[in-house]
Amino acid sequence: MKQLFYGFVIVAILCLLPALSFIADAQTVRVVTVPTFATSGKYLNEFIAADTTGRSTVDNTTYVLYRDSTYYANSAINNVSWTLRMRSSYGTFVKGVSGYPAAIFLKLGSSGTQVSDLVQIAGNIWLSNLEISGYDETIGSSMLGSIFEEILKCTAPGYNITIDSCIITNCGQGILRLDSAPRVVKITNSIFANMGSRLYSDLGNGRAVDCRTGSVDSLILQNNTFVNNQDRIIRHYTSSANISFMKFDHNTCVNSASFHGLLSFGHTAGLFSITNNLFVNPWAYGDDTDNTRQAEMGDNGELNALNGKARMTLINACPDSTNPVVSKPTTWTIKNNYYRITTAEQTWWTNAGANPVLKLPSPLPWHISKKIGTDSLTAFQATTADVNNVPALMTATMAYYRSPSGANKTKVNNTTPACPDMDRRGYVYLTDTLDCKYPTTASIYTAGTGGQPIGSLMWWGLTPVGVQTQSSRSIPEEYTLTQNYPNPFNPSTNFTYELSKAGFVSVKVYDLLGREVATLVNEFKPAGSYPATWNAAGFGSGIYFCKMQSGSFTATKKMILMK
Asked: What's the whole-model pTM score?
């Protein structure tokens, strides 16, 4: 029986997709429909590689995959210095019949080994309304043992990665790995699932976003659902560079085993916000004095009093004092986050044989708690609300790790079938059956910002308060201050300022004598394009100047107020 996920969510997405500027075909010169392997005998990567016109430095092509169809890749797509835009075709959703996103499966390559990545990202990339799996689920789980590390891998710096309304599942190490420094990474309205593989990698792997040690200008994860991660949702451990802006908002996280952590940010700078999130069975391995797990939790610089090793906390980040490349302290906003410890998780903690008994660790490191003050007391709160239909917690895998006759608290590659797998559900389940709604009578249904539900709003067909559809071209390539309009004006005028990187920006108005008469913007902003208005009521006619400053960039525009 088809569940309400598509009834409430995909219908809304399909109705909205034609109007979304995110993938508006009107913004591109070419719309190329990609034939399936069954009709063309070509893998997805082969078709795109052969389309030499599409491999242009100009953002001019959208690749469209047929809905209700299956595609295969046997080698990585390499978009070196060109933009890869790929989506499912538009269509009307008919429950149980048609309208499902195109499915892409990674196959064995020509050498007989599993494909390393679907895309090796070396240019801008936008993916929308696709289902992607790290192995061919149509032939069962026989390929699970050869599943590779990641599905998407950033291999060149300075590009933007946008993922919207996708289901991406089955990786060995991480779904998105950022080996090079991207500018903006934005993931919205998506499901990431089954992160980690007992037959490919060790239990310390299995992440949603692996930032490694490098920089990320802006990292935005909003309105997503993460299901079955063996390790962290975000990894930026022992970083040598900063994440400069981070928003983790309205996400639902189910079955986070948290071998080495949950949200691990390393070096940070600028604005960081963690808000309106729901965590079901978080930190399932429990707060423990376990050297193997503690080995990658040391960024906080805080120690567990029981064994002198790293103190476990849900949020892990380096203090400002240890960051050699931060110009100003990080500002943290952490509120309206809730967690549900289910009976399965609590029972496993009780019976695990640990001393002291396993539990949820403290949510925050001391240095962040000190920054946010009394808000730290309610930053993460417990709830009794249960979600409707999700995979079972991976307790068998967790027991194998602790067992003296199993892994015996080591994370060696579990290449033997003796290590139980997580409750790994296929893309059909993720499409039709997964249901992370909870009763609307639960207090968390109205506990979010603006009275919205906690967790991903996609399950109710809602959009986070204040979020507007963002154009795929809305991440500017350079700093800009546009000329005001109208000009001359009376009494209000409008303009746009654009930031190619996150940073502090000021926009001020000066009179003809150089005196500051108005401050319109004076704050830290993520990369993006922003509107601004100056209402000059109360000011006399004459010439004024609007000046924008951000980093080393400065721009000034002349304005004429004529009353």
From this structure: 0.88
